[in-house]
Design goal:
Elements lengths: L3 E6 L2 H9 L8 E4 L11 E4 L1 H4 L9 H13 L6 E3 L3 H16 L5 E5 L2 E5 L6 H19 L3 E6 L2 H8 L7 E3 L5 H5 L12 H9 L5 H4 L4 H8 L1 H9 L16 E12 L2 H21 L5 E10 L4 E12 L2 H12 L14 E9 L4
Parallel strand pairs: 2-4, 7-8
Antiparallel strand pairs: 1-6, 1-7, 2-3, 5-6, 9-12, 10-11, 10-12
Helix pairs in contact: 4-5, 10-11, 12-13
The chain binds thymidine-5'-triphosphate and magnesium ion.
The site of magnesium ion has 4 residues, from strand 1.
Length: about 350
């Protein structure tokens, strides 16, 4: 019998900011693009729970978040504090949390910057697994001053849904015999993979909750959604046998190069980027890796200021085209105000791939 836990940090980016600035404690905090007094473009990365009470959510336009905050302020509530993200800081916090998890579980899969799956099957029963989960929660709280929410069930799918049930600082255990009862009343959007389009498609058919979806046969779902429909048939029954995948110790494969002369000529920079991408893909394959899931671009300016940007892609990839495409997208902001407001020349660029599987 498998016992799998899913751990997801609460309001992660905002929580990291809050712990480092005592004067922010308890205030509504929004991490995201610069709101520029309501004129800002870009979106909210995350909002802490105090800001969520104003209706502010991840991926909302930052200008809308600003208006909601201003509205609250006019009603005598505290205005939200807007902060721009500092990804390196969150990646450091993430590494520390994973290190803690690894002292409790033999197999840990990092699923994103703030979530992971832990194999607790060794604990024999759910009572033991619950104790371990509580210890992990306590250690993250005392050592990192952050809270998380954990779901425990027989598989990744149900644990991921469960960790979201009692946020923040929650623990939800779904025993094998209650898996179906647990997911039946949930909105179909709670099933990972069902996005706004699939939801819309089923709402038109009068399907709102998982129990409604269970009325479709495997063939019917296959007809509506193709292969994904067949997977969905299993998912709505709480079935999932996907294994945890741990990444190898070698964390990244990368390459970087300094220009002969500092430059802001996009043609020259992009050319080098393509050469580097080619080199990285070659080494990546040579070292026996199969897929990468994160692309990181580093830019060092003439004054040695060094910035990195990274993106985790949805589907693990292995092609030169994907690497070039992602790296180019990450690089473009360095040519304009987004990442280079004073139009500094570039001295060096580097790219690397992370989150590798063999
Ligand atoms: P989530 O775990 O989805 O959100 P969260 O940790 O902020 O809040 P919750 O308590 O609901 O788990 O995402 C983790 C981090 O990823 C989040 O802190 C910021 C970042 N993120 C974005 O940058 N954009 C997004 O649209 C989302 C959803 C997250
Ligand atoms: Mg989270």
């Amino acid at each position: 019998m498998r016992i799998i836990a899913h751990l997801d940090m609460d309001a992660f980016f905002a929580a990291v900011e809050e712990r480092e600035r005592p004067r922010l404690r308890g205030k509504p905090i929004i991490v995201g693009a610069d709101p520029k007094n309501g004129q800002g473009r870009g979106v909210v990365s995350t909002a802490n729970y105090a800001a969520r009470e104003y209706g502010i959510r991840s991926a909302m336009p930052i200008s809308q978040a600003w208006r909601l905050s201003e509205g609250a302020r006019r009603n005598g509530k505290p205005a939200a504090v807007f902060l721009e993200p500092d990804f390196n800081k969150y990646a450091d916090a993430s590494d520390k949390i994973i290190a803690i998890a690894k002292t409790y579980a033999p197999l840990v899969e990092q699923a994103s910057i703030d979530e992971m799956y832990l194999d607790l099957s060794f604990s024999k029963n759910y009572g033991q697994a619950e104790k371990i989960a509580n210890k992990i929660k306590r250690e993250i709280k005392t050592r990192e001053r952050l809270t998380c929410s954990i779901g425990i069930s027989p598989n990744k799918l149900v644990s991921k849904i469960a960790s979201d049930m009692k946020k923040p600082d929650g623990l939800t255990i779904v025993l094998p015999e209650f898996v179906e009862k647990f997911i039946e009343p949930l909105a179909i959007r709670k099933i990972p993979g069902i996005g706004p389009k699939t939801e819309e498609l089923f709402l038109k058919k009068g399907v709102r909750i998982v129990a409604d979806l269970k009325k479709f046969s495997r063939e019917e779902l296959g007809e509506i959604l193709g292969v994904w429909g067949l997977e969905l048939y299993e998912k709505v029954r709480g079935r999932d046998d996907s294994p945890l995948i741990e990444e190898r110790e070698v964390k990244s494969v990368g390459s970087q190069e300094t220009f002969e002369k500092d430059t802001l000529d996009s043609g020259i920079v992009i050319n080098l980027l393509k050469v580097l991408a080619d080199e990285v893909i070659g080494n990546f394959k040579k070292e026996g890796f199969e897929k990468f899931r994160r692309v990181v671009v580093t830019v060092r300016f003439a004054d040695f200021e060094t910035k990195t940007k990274s993106r985790t892609i949805k589907e693990p990839a292995d092609s030169l085209e994907t690497l070039q495409f992602e790296a180019l997208n990450l690089l473009m902001p360095f040519f304009d105000k987004r990442e280079n407001p004073r139009a500094k020349k570039i001295r060096l660029i580097g790219i690397r791939v992370e989150k590798l599987t063999v």
